[in-house]
TrEMBL record:
<dbReference type="GO" id="GO:0005524">
    <property type="term" value="F:ATP binding"/>
</dbReference>
<dbReference type="InterPro" id="IPR036097">
    <property type="entry name" value="HisK_dim/P_sf"/>
</dbReference>
<keyword id="KW-0067">ATP-binding</keyword>
<dbReference type="InterPro" id="IPR003660">
    <property type="entry name" value="HAMP_dom"/>
</dbReference>
<keyword id="KW-1133">Transmembrane helix</keyword>
<dbReference type="Pfam" id="PF00672">
    <property type="entry name" value="HAMP"/>
</dbReference>
<dbReference type="GO" id="GO:0000155">
    <property type="term" value="F:phosphorelay sensor kinase activity"/>
</dbReference>
<feature type="domain" description="HAMP">
    <location>
        <begin position="167"/>
        <end position="219"/>
    </location>
</feature>
<dbReference type="GO" id="GO:0005886">
    <property type="term" value="C:plasma membrane"/>
</dbReference>
<protein>
    <recommendedName>
        <fullName>histidine kinase</fullName>
        <ecNumber>2.7.13.3</ecNumber>
    </recommendedName>
</protein>
<dbReference type="InterPro" id="IPR005467">
    <property type="entry name" value="His_kinase_dom"/>
</dbReference>
<keyword id="KW-0472">Membrane</keyword>
<dbReference type="InterPro" id="IPR036890">
    <property type="entry name" value="HATPase_C_sf"/>
</dbReference>
<keyword id="KW-0597">Phosphoprotein</keyword>
<dbReference type="InterPro" id="IPR050980">
    <property type="entry name" value="2C_sensor_his_kinase"/>
</dbReference>
<keyword id="KW-0418">Kinase</keyword>
<feature type="domain" description="Histidine kinase">
    <location>
        <begin position="227"/>
        <end position="424"/>
    </location>
</feature>
Amino acid sequence: MRRRILTLVGAMMLLVLVAFAVPLALLVRTVAIDRAVGTATAEAQSLTPLVATADRAALNLSVAQVDATTVADVTLYLPDGGVLGTPAPRTPLVELGARGTSASTDVAGGREIVFAVRDSAGAGGAIRILVPDAELTRGVGRSWLLLAGLSLLLLAGGLLLADRLARSLVDATTDLAEVSDRLARGELAARADAAAPAELGIVAGALNGLAGRISELLREERENVADLAHRVRTPLTALRLDAESLRDPADAARISEGVDGVQRAVTGAIEHARRRGTDAATCDAAAVVSDRVAFWAVLAEDTEREVRVDVADGPLPVAIGKGDLEACVDALLGNVFAHTPDGTAFAVSLVARREGGARLVVADSGPGLPAGAAAAERGVSGGGSTGLGLDIARRTADQASGALTLDRPPEGGLRVVLDLGAPQRPES
């Protein structure tokens, strides 16, 4: 953008300068020629009355003085054929002057000017003046250099002003892009410079208003989630008390464990709502995946499932918070247990990506997805569930600048590939 503005301004200024400088340069040259011709003509015309009144000796002296004081060559052709002043051949213009016609023309070496004169007897003669080219263009080269220098100075000044204007526009645009990117990453405190030039300032103000509105909506959401979670805790407490009053200790323990699970989920929802937009979205994927696989391995052993685990050595930093990644891994492994029969083997692998981040693969040898199922879409599942497990994984991938992919391996089953981006390095 900056280069285009400079190119446009430079081209326009160049056209304007050429439109004014070229005619002005030609005018300077014309004025210099007219000045040189006028000066020489005035000096030569002073000899005209002397031809009719002065004798030959005085006339010769006068012509010599004029010839010596002017840069032009002055020659007087007398009616009797005599020549005074600078020797020069009789040109056609001189012959024309001897017949009573004054004229001028450009010749090799300068401009020839002829005046018709008559002696005391009325016989015709001529005064010839040859103004050299050097005199005709004296001072023109210097004037053209000054004009060219002034044009370049104006062009440079115009480009400098255009560059400052373009830089302010580009900086304002870049600032808007950076603020938008920071808002997209969850930095809701980011604000654009509303003092940006022209319409960019209006856009910056609108973006700041949008950021403020997003912050308000998120705050309201956190408050609503926290309020809902607080309301849920009361019946959960009642359920816990009912469970503890059961006579069968096994039933009491089982129900209490379920209540504890719901309590943990509620607490996690509150913590997630409170930290949204404020947590540093980074964690060690290797540590999180290893911890969650170890947790689910106990249930896998109880349901006679073979588990193959291949987790790369950490740390493997990814651009997602620890709690979010734990919820994602739990959702993917929970889907395996919920939608495959007991005894179905599954595998979990975590490797580093070449461009940074990590790739998590959860594969099972179960029935897989039904044909045409779009389980990655929110609320859609091919197994009769709500589909929110894979939706959690999809949102996790989006938050980590990654992608979620589902496919069917040749040996059958379902393979879920979750790419997680690397944390962005802080700007220096």
